[in-house]
Amino acid sequence: MTAIDVNIEAVEPRGTKPKKVLSNRNIMVYGVLIVAAIYYLIPLYVMIMTSVKGMPEIRMGNIFSPPVEITFEPWVKAWAHACTGLNCDGLSRGFWNSVMITVPSTIISILIASVNGYALANWKFKGANVFFTILIFGAFIPYQVLIYPIVLLLSQIGLYTKLAGLVIVHTVFGMPILTLLFRNYFISLPEELFKAARVDGAAFWGIFIKIMLPMSLPIFVVAIILQVTGIWNDFLFGVIYTKPANYPITVQLNNIVNSVQGVKEYNVNMAATMLTAIVPLVVYFVSGKLFVRGIAAGAVKG
User: To the nearest whole number, what is the mean pLDDT of the chain?
Assistant: First the structure.
């Protein structure tokens, strides 16, 4: 054997070692994920299948079987004809009530909370720590203890049972936790950007609008998801602070599902549930990646 052959044999292979596709770790991880996915998807599958079946087929008892004949009549009835108390106009009225509640509550609370978080993170004013402590306390105080005082307050200002009153309630209850998220996110941004803008003569609103907002898309997505899903899925505030004509969609869904008059129409109930859940599902699917980025940057730093 020559010296060249010895040197070639002594050279170790370079580069990363190829990973086994079916390693024990991968089998365990993917196995757990598959089991969890099946566990959570089975109820959704049953809901969808039931919502497109007729009642004669449902009475046969096999909830996991696909429909023999697909019908969308339960969806039409849930949207436009199902009785939600004295009214039999389906979920359509509650859907638009929820839209009129969710949109202004989300926009107003996020705008105020973003300014609050920006001020607490970058502009140290007198009493800032006390203000931030009060906000933290407000974020974690049980809202059940404030239900009756809010009823009295809304009655005094003439907004009890009105949509505007419920908008105020959701806006106020959303601001503390959103302020915390925005404050932590703005603290995580490079401080040199803020200082450079101050040196260039930029003021409070100039820095906020031209520098902070363009860099804050992930945390705004987090705030939108939290507020939209929280307000849209709310039941307690909706049933307490509004009247039947202004009930949000969740209250109407409860009235449909828990109705004791006539035949129990499970397909209509499932269709109504799916219609109620469409908006939060769409929001999550559209902005899922930005939600993960924003929650990581705005919730664990600062």
Answer: 84
For 52-77, the pLDDT digits (tens) are: 999 988 888 888 888 888 999 999 99
DSSP state string for 117-128:
HHHHHH---TTH
pLDDT score at 17:
62
Q: Model confidence over 72-112: pLDDT tens digits?
A: 999 999 999 888 777 788 899 999 999 999 999 999 999 99
Q: Give yes or no for residue 264 having a pLDDT over 70.
A: yes
Burial 90-116 (b: 16+ CB within 10 A, else e): bbbbbbebbebbbebbbebbbebbbbb
**Residue 1 CB: number of other CB atoms within 10 A?**
6
Beta bridge partners of 242: 161
Question: pTM of the entire structure?
Answer: 0.82
Which tokens sit at 83?
Answer: 């009785």
DSSP for residue 54? -
State how far Cα 34 lies from the chain centre. 24
Q: Helix/strand/coil (H, E, C) string of 171-213?
A: HHHHHHHHHHHHHHHHHHCCHHHHHHHHHCCCCHHHHHHHHHH
Q: What is the CATH number of domain 92-299?
A: 1.10.3720.10
Measured between alpha carbons, how far is 10 from 100 in angstroms, rounded to an integer? Answer: 74
Tokens 């302020």 sit on residue:
179
Cα 107 to Cα 93: distance, rounded to the nearest angstrom: 22
Q: How far is CA 35 from CA 29, 39, 40, 288, in A?
A: 10, 6, 9, 22
Domain coordinates in residue numbering, the chain: 22-71, 92-299
Q: How many CA atoms lie within 13 A of 195 on its CB side?
A: 4
pLDDT in tens, 213-224: 888 888 898 899
